[in-house]
Write the structure tokens for this entry.
Amino acid sequence: MQMCGKWPIGVCSWSFRKDVEEIGSVMTALGVEHINLAIAPALGPDGDKYLEAVKRQGWTIYSGMMNYDYEDYSTLDAIRVTGGIAPDAHWPASGEAFARAAKITAELGSKYIMMHVGFLDHSDKAYAKKFYDRVRYLGDSAGEAGVSVLMETGQETAEDLQRFVETLNHPNVLLNFDPANLLLYNKDEPMSAFRRLAPWVRQIHIKDAVRTEVPGTWGSEVVWGEGQVNAFAFLNTLAECGFEGVVAVEREAGEQRVKDIATAVRRLMAY
């Protein structure tokens, strides 16, 4: 098992764009045992085969990940409208799918299932009430399954997210902290944001990025340690705040995913 200081190093399964067996081969080569596993494939027509392949690997599945095929990340405006459980056209089906995914995650031995729940907007009272109600449903469903939902960070400021989790005050709604998302969405500074949100964070996505210079457009994801997250200082901040959990490498850009993931693992081990 590879470690970054006191934290186990994990990987995000969807980063590889490979099937389960190929992911397993790469993880074995890297010496990485922990995984943040995509759960949506288990809900599809080949779900049983997917789960059988996963179970053969012997991974430590630290967390699951739920997403939806209607989500559109092509632009910031598109994902604002289509992200997570916000779209009315897909609710309550999206919530019911999450509940099934939470049960599968628990059956795989994990305590957490993470997802982008959608955009927060406290300025629109009707939308905010709907959003709070739906995330409360996710928390209840997760609790019934024996897991907690980890909201992915980045689509809002740390101040807004803190306000949300404190107001919701749900024991099964916690956070997955992605420092690069704060840059990609141009929302906040990773280290100060983590300090604010640390009490709720249970997993870290190891991802790096550079802010956009054109407001309203995406920033650029880069290899861990080569962007504006300030990798070693960020890890120092995790240590200072007493973080306990897995640091899971996520790579969602580029055409050398395995090489980039291996670079990130090597740099984490050097910390």
Observations:
- The domain at 3-269 is CATH 3.20.20.150 (TIM Barrel).
